[in-house]
Amino acid sequence: MTIQQLESLLNINLPSKEQTILLDDTQITVKRDDSIHSIISGNKWRKVKFQLLDALENNTKHIISFGGGFSNHLHALGYYCRQLNIKLTAIVRGDYSQNLSPMLQDLIAWKSDIRYVNKLTYQARTDSYLNTLQTEFPQALIIPEGGSSHFALQGVGELISELSQEYDYIIAPVASGGTLAGLIQEVSKQSLKTKVLGIGVLKGQGYLEDLVNDLLPKEHASSNWQIMHDFHFGGYAKKNAELIQYCDKFYQQHKIEIEPIYSGKLFYAIELLIQNTYFPKSSRILALHTGGLQGTR
Ligand SMILES: *Cc1c(COP(=O)(O)O)cnc(C)c1O
């Protein structure tokens, strides 16, 4: 199977479109990865596509992965696995069994096998617990939280080649780092002058940079990127009235839906940076809309 065949099988609509909008009288372009599929929107497809293709080629029948109770990654993976007839074991942080989120209800409908684990067990997802799972399921493919692996970098990198022009800035939200690392790697591969800016959506100064650096191969460890840490609103999925209002106002003005966990913080940050004249005049600015609207249902 080719990646194009896989995408048409799953009804994924790529390349996504570029749409210009005015933010505070400044023109920016939005890469609409939120609109690549009717159920599964956003960056999660790009992050797992090559891993899934590889899994299909190796005849993988079982995938295990990790996430919170509203995880866009588990949601997307649950859908793909159902369509592709692969069993998914979803390791969920916290016990939501008596209080299913819409995401978990979808996973159940898609026949995923859900395991609720406490914070301590979940924290060991990259070491001891990973080994326990691999011993229990020797045939299974284990995909890290958020789908952030070297496959993710390749998939995300493709979006740079889809662009109609070169940009001075590409700006994206950052949580597990795979998306930003993919952008940085591709900008470096193509020797573009584009600066890659990340907006940290959780409290993670130092930690987020480490995640990105750990994912980047040495030859693409460029310095033309930066993560901003002033826009997390108190932490992951934390929000306040101002941010919620901002998302509503943004939708009214631009008719593009955003949510407070990722894209709301992204556009809020960009608008504030514009107001603070962070960008030199007539900079070409691209914002990556990574989707994620399912998480706020
Ligand atoms: C997962 C996710 C991100 C963060 O991407 P990372 O590669 O984990 O940094 C951003 N936006 C949305 C909507 C997401 O679901």
UniProtKB/TrEMBL annotation:
Pfam families per UniProt: PALP (PF00291)
Annotated ranges, domain Tryptophan synthase beta chain-like PALP: 27-291
Protein name: Pyridoxal-phosphate dependent enzyme
Database matches in PANTHER family: 1-AMINOCYCLOPROPANE-1-CARBOXYLATE DEAMINASE-RELATED
Record key words, sorted: Pyridoxal phosphate
InterPro entries found in the cross-reference section: ACCD_DCysDesulf (IPR027278), TrpB-like_PALP (IPR001926), TrpB-like_PALP_sf (IPR036052)
Top-level division of the source organism's lineage: Bacteria
Cofactor list: pyridoxal 5'-phosphate
Protein's organism: Paraglaciecola algarum
Family statement: Belongs to the ACC deaminase/D-cysteine desulfhydrase family.
Source lineage: Bacteria, Pseudomonadati, Pseudomonadota, Gammaproteobacteria, Alteromonadales
